[in-house]
C-alpha cells in the first residue's frame, strides 16, 4: 500500500502525492496552481517564454571609477561579481536596459542608443594606456531600443534615438559583473540617458515609464554612486575613517529607499534638500539614477543589500523587487527555492515557484522515500 506525501507551501497550496515506487527512476514533475499533472521527464525542456516569467528586479549599482575593472582586491569587485552571477544565473533576463550617470541629454529630453554594435566611450582622463584599449564585447538591439522609445513617449517624455557607445558607467561595472571569460553576457544591452536636470521627480517618472519592461524579461539597471565627491577624494584618502557626510548621506539614502513604496518618491526627493547633499554629491548626476531605479520599481520594495562607505564615496548597492529565487534545478526544471526535507538516503528535494508566476512546482526523484517537510 502506498503512503501519501503532503506538502503545504506557505499556506497557499496543498498537494498530495503517492509515494514513488523504487523501480521508477525518472524524475516526476508536479505542477500545482491552475492545474495538476504528472509527467515523466525524458528530455530537456525548452526554456520558458519570457512573457510568463516573474518580473525582473531592478538594480542600482554604485559603479566606481574605471580602475574597478582591474582592482580585483577591492571589496566592491567581489560584490559586483556576485551581482552579475545573480543576474545571469537567477534572474536570467533576455536583455538589459541601463541608465548611467555619465550620459545626460537635454533638460527635457531622454536619448536612447539604437545602435546594434556599441563601441566603448573612454570618458576618463589620466589613466594608464591599457585603460583606453579595454574591450567589453556587447551588442545592442534596435527593436528593444525602439520599444524603450515608445514607452517613454507614451509617458509624455520627449525621447530621441541616437547611435552611441557605452560609457564607463556601464562598461566598467559590467566588465566585473559580466566578465567575458567567467560570466559572459549573451544578451543585448540598450543604454538610455538621464535628463540634463536635477529634478528627482522627473527622473522618477523616467523610471516609471519603463517599469512594464520588467514583465517582459528585461533587466533594468541604474548606474551611479550612493555618495560621489571627487573634489574631496584625495583629502579623504588621508583620513582613517570615511568623511562624515559619506556616512550620514549613505544612511539617509538607505532609509529613503527602504520606505514604503507609496512614500519612497517623496523621501528620495527630500534627500536633495539635506544640508549634506551637496557635500555627498557636488552635482547630482550620480544620485539621480537611483530615482530612476525606484520609479521603475513601481510598488516593489527597495533594499540596500551591501554598502561600503570609503573616503568621499559610498559603494552601496540596491535591489528593488523580490530577491531573485535560487535557481535550483532537478531534471533541468528550474524552481524558485529549496525546502529542507528529512529524507531516507542522500537525496534532497526541491519545492518552489516555477518560472511562471502562477504555478507551484514540486520536483522530486525516486527511489527515495518522501517524508514531511517545512519551508525554511
UniProtKB/TrEMBL annotation:
Residues 58-302 form the Extradiol ring-cleavage dioxygenase class III enzyme subunit B domain. InterPro entries: Extradiol_dOase_DODA, Xdiol_dOase_suB. It holds the Pfam family LigB. Its cofactor is Zn(2+). The keyword Hydrolase does not apply. Keywords: Dioxygenase, Metal-binding, Oxidoreductase, Zinc. CDD domains: 45_DOPA_Dioxygenase (cd07363). The keyword Oxidoreductase applies. GO terms for molecular function: ferrous iron binding; oxidoreductase activity, acting on single donors with incorporation of molecular oxygen, incorporation of two atoms of oxygen; zinc ion binding. Belongs to the DODA-type extradiol aromatic ring-opening dioxygenase family. This is Extradiol ring-cleavage dioxygenase, class III enzyme, subunit B.
Amino acid at each position: 500500500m502506498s503512503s501519501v506525501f503532503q506538502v503545504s507551501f506557505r499556506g497557499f497550496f496543498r498537494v498530495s502525492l503517492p509515494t514513488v515506487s523504487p523501480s521508477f527512476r525518472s524524475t516526476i514533475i508536479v505542477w500545482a496552481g491552475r492545474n495538476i499533472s504528472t509527467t515523466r521527464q525524458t528530455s530537456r525542456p525548452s526554456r520558458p517564454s519570457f512573457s510568463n516569467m516573474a518580473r525582473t528586479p531592478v538594480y542600482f549599482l554604485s559603479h566606481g571609477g574605471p580602475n574597478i575593472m582591474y582592482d580585483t582586491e577591492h571589496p566592491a569587485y567581489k560584490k559586483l561579481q556576485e551581482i552579475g552571477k545573480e543576474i545571469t544565473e537567477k534572474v536570467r533576463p533576455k536583455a538589459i536596459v541601463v541608465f548611467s550617470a555619465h550620459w545626460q541629454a537635454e533638460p527635457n529630453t531622454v536619448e536612447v542608443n539604437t545602435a546594434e554594435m556599441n563601441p566603448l566611450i573612454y570618458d576618463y582622463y589620466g589613466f594608464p594606456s591599457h585603460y583606453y584599449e579595454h574591450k567589453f564585447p556587447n551588442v545592442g538591439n534596435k527593436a528593444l531600443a525602439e520599444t524603450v522609445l515608445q514607452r517613454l513617449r507614451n509617458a509624455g517624455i520627449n525621447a530621441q534615438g541616437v547611435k552611441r557607445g557605452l560609457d564607463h558607467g556601464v562598461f566598467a561595472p559590467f566588465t566585473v559583473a559580466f566578465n567575458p571569460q567567467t560570466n559572459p553576457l549573451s544578451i543585448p544591452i540598450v543604454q538610455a540617458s538621464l535628463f540634463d536636470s536635477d529634478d528627482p521627480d522627473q527622473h522618477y517618472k523616467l523610471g516609471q515609464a519603463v517599469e512594464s519592461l520588467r514583465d517582459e524579461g528585461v533587466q533594468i539597471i541604474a548606474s551611479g554612486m550612493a555618495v560621489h565627491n571627487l573634489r574631496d577624494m584625495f583629502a579623504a584618502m588621508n583620513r582613517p575613517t570615511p568623511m562624515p557626510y559619506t556616512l550620514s548621506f549613505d544612511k539617509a539614502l538607505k532609509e529613503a529607499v527602504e520606505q514604503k513604496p507609496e512614500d519612497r518618491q517623496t523621501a528620495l526627493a527630500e534627500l536633495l534638500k539635506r544640508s549634506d547633499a551637496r557635500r555627498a554629491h557636488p552635482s547630482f548626476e550620480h544620485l539621480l539614477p537611483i530615482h530612476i531605479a525606484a520609479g521603475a520599481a513601481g510598488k516593489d520594495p527597495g533594499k540596500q543589500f551591501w554598502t561600503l562607505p570609503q573616503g568621499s564615496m559610498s559603494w552601496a548597492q540596491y535591489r528593488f523587487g523580490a530577491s531573485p529565487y535560487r535557481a535550483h534545478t532537478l531534471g533541468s526544471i528550474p524552481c524558485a527555492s529549496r525546502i529542507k526535507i528529512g529524507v531516507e538516503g542522500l537525496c534532497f528535494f526541491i519545492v518552489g515557484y516555477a518560472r511562471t508566476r502562477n504555478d507551484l512546482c514540486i520536483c522530486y526523484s525516486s527511489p527515495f522515500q518522501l517524508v514531511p517537510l517545512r519551508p525554511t
